[in-house]
Amino acid sequence: MKLTVYLAGEIHTDWRDRITQGAADLPVTFTGPVTDHAASDDCGVAILGAEDQKFWHDHKGAKLNAIRTRKALADADIVVVRFGEKYKQWNAAFDAGYAAALGKSLIVMHQDEHQHALKEVDAAALAVVQTPEQVVQILRYTLTGEMP
After folding, report:
1. Domain 3-32+75-144 maps to which CATH number in 3.40.930.10, 3.40.50.450, 3.90.1170.30, 2.160.10.10?
2. pLDDT digits (tens, 9 = 90+) for 17-50
3. Rounded alpha-carbon distances, angstroms, from residue 28 to 17, 53, 73, 87, 105
């Protein structure tokens, strides 16, 4: 068995690297959004032309990013969504909902302080974890049946 895992959510910490490094020996392909914040924000105007109003600037970027996100979510076997401590990741919540609507296996990662705010997202998940290492253990168990 081989898995494709989409890593959605906050872009300010090393959680993606910890998962990909921890699962380096597993048959897993990782995908995700563009994590260069400036590129993600400005791709629409860079490709489609400048906008005078910030709304339309952001609108163009969001639509271009959605092309990548929709394809990657559709192709994923498992979607991991990380909610960080510092920022509210509305895009992460949207990705979690979209993945749930597609019937994807969903793993949600956040700290205890966000438990109440994310209770509906957590309810849609097959696992709720706090660390990237727990995600790696889930992937290992899914693929090999190996316990930590």
Report:
1. 3.40.50.450
2. 999 999 999 999 999 999 999 999 999 999 999 9
3. 14, 41, 15, 29, 15
Q: Where do the domains of the chain lie? A: 3-32+75-144
Q: Where are the beta strands (DSSP E) in the chain?
A: 3-9, 28-31, 78-82, 105-109, 127-129
Report the distance separating Cα 135 and Cα 88, nearest Å.
21
pTM of the model: 0.95
Kindly indicate the confidence band of residue 90, based on its pLDDT and cuts at 50, 70 and 90. Answer: confident
